[in-house]
Amino acid sequence: MSQDVQLESVTMRFGSVTAVRDVSLTVGAGEFFSFLGPSGCGKTTILRMVSGFMEPTEGAIRIGGRDMRGIGPNKRPTALIFQNLALFPLMTVAENIGFGLEVRGVPAAERQRRVRKLLDLVALPDAAQKKVTELSGGQRQRIAIARALAVEPAVLLLDEPLSALDLKLRQHMRAELRDLQKRTGVTFIYITHDQGEALTMSDRIGVMSRGVLEQVGDGRAIYDHPETAFVASFVGENNRFSGTVAESADGLAALDTPHGRLVGRNPRRLSPGDRATLFVRPERMAAGAGAENALEARVTHRDFEGAFINAFLEGGITIQVPHRGDEPPLTPGEPARIAFRAEDAVVLPDAPA
Ligand code: ATP
């Protein structure tokens, strides 16, 4: 049975370092939630607090409505999976999976039954008697997950569990993890610095920077509607134009930039005089005219990527156009006219230094 996890104004300080600052959030029961952010942003600290290895300096954590203060890791309805899986190398797969059950005094017959069920769940029905050392990286990963699920946690906490695997396996395991989460219905809290992982697997993502939860939303909201300059910069590629807000009305802001006046959405309600940056994705810009925003810049070079052509323009501007054979020329050395719609751009306050 899955449970929800509530963080209420959670702060964690280590001496003068504030690793997590005033984070409030509810992860729903049965949800696949990812914390995404660069190294040092406080993701692991959140996981440690939820699992009970650390108590927050301030704030409360509730799991299934129950306040977790003073409740140790073994008494919480959580299980944790790390990057280095810490499987017992000399034990068989079945012994590894059954270990937590044995510690809890579950009788042998019942243990065996549950181990078999878990091996089916992770699609390794014949692996019970194998040694861990005989398994591939992806198989070990699945055994680690089976072992964590054996104790029937309501919440599974995953700390960059795929980062030790090679790229192909990592991509394959994304789909497996997602599928496993949906089949078990267990609440997953996943931490990663890899936006691809977060975007492909999660129901919702919480983007973190410097201990602060910058934005929470599903993948589309995070990608299409970033609410802070950090989120716009960290998730996906963006062109940026810095300047000063000249006008704001009807949910739009016009920004005076070195490329002229450019207009974008204004979700943060910036006013004239505010310093800000306009963000627009390379794939939302097109060669030619016919949109609210237009600018001209010389093409420095272009890359053919098969499905796409990336053109690089002076001023650090990148545009990406689908390769259909009829795209307008973006000729190196020549000026190009670039257009994009106001609704495809967003104007956001500059992040504090
Ligand atoms: P990574 O992806 O590198 O693990 P992270 O986002 O998980 O990074 P945390 O490990 O949560 O980040 O660390 C957040 C901040 O808190 C960092 O500045 C880190 O140095 C600091 N920190 C974490 N644990 C401790 C500790 N036990 N004592 C002192 N400082 C700590």
Protein architecture, described:
The chain is α+β, with helices and mostly antiparallel strands and 353 residues long. It contains 8 helices and 20 strands. The protein has helices at 43-51, 93-103, 108-121, 137-150, 167-184, 195-201, 219-224, 229-234; strands at 5-14, 17-27, 32-36, 58-63, 66-67, 78-81, 155-159, 187-192, 204-209, 212-217, 239-249, 252-257, 260-265, 275-280, 286-287, 293-304, 308-313, 317-322, 335-340, 345-349. A hairpin with a 2-residue loop joins strand 1 and strand 2 (17-27). The model has no long low-confidence stretch (mean pLDDT 91). The site of adenosine-5'-triphosphate has 12 residues, from strand 2 and helix 1.
Helix content: 10-25%
What's the overall average pLDDT, rounded?
91
- Spell out the helices and strands N to C: EEEHEEEHHHEHEHEEHHEEEEEEEEEE
- Using only C-alpha atoms, the radius of gyration works out to 24 Å
Ranges with pLDDT <50 over ≥5 residues?
none
Shape: globular
End-to-end separation: 44 Å
Q: Bound small molecules, which ones?
A: adenosine-5'-triphosphate
The number of helical segments is: 8
Number of separate strands: 20
